[in-house]
Amino acid sequence: MSLRPPRRSTRQRDRRRRRGPWLLSLVAALVVGGGAAVAWVLSPDTDERAVEGASVPDSFAGTWSGRMVQQEAGGDHVIDWDTRIKLEGGAERGSSEWYTLNCRGSLTLAEHEGDRMSFDYVETYDPEDHCVDEAELTLWPGGSEGEIEARWDALSDSGTPMVSTGTLR
């Protein structure tokens, strides 16, 4: 007579152990897939945004250059600087180079209302720290064919409002 219980088969226990990771993987895949489906359904439709005019119209597309006159909010002249703006028709982004100051940045269309467009400017290159990190650019048709008017609004590092205006061709 033995004091030990008889040996049990491990065949069923091993099957249960193998099923655990597989079942856990299936549940994880369902959760991730469900989350992705919800995010897709709730995301804004890019086609709707294009219909609402959230892209650069052909009349503003191209490369535009000109001289900007910068003033403080009180009207004191600060500096004149030259810029080049590149906008692609149908796109929501563009680029800007302030070549007199050796600065570059990206433009993202923020608003398009009537014949005016506003872009958010974010600096991408400024090795000599001459330029602002962020600004708002507003464009509208100029007084003559082949011209657009530009206005840059920004805050200096010290918090002083700066306005630059000019005609681009």
From TrEMBL:
The chain crosses the membrane at residues 21-42. Keywords: Membrane, Transmembrane, Transmembrane helix. The keyword Transmembrane helix applies. This is Lipocalin-like domain-containing protein.
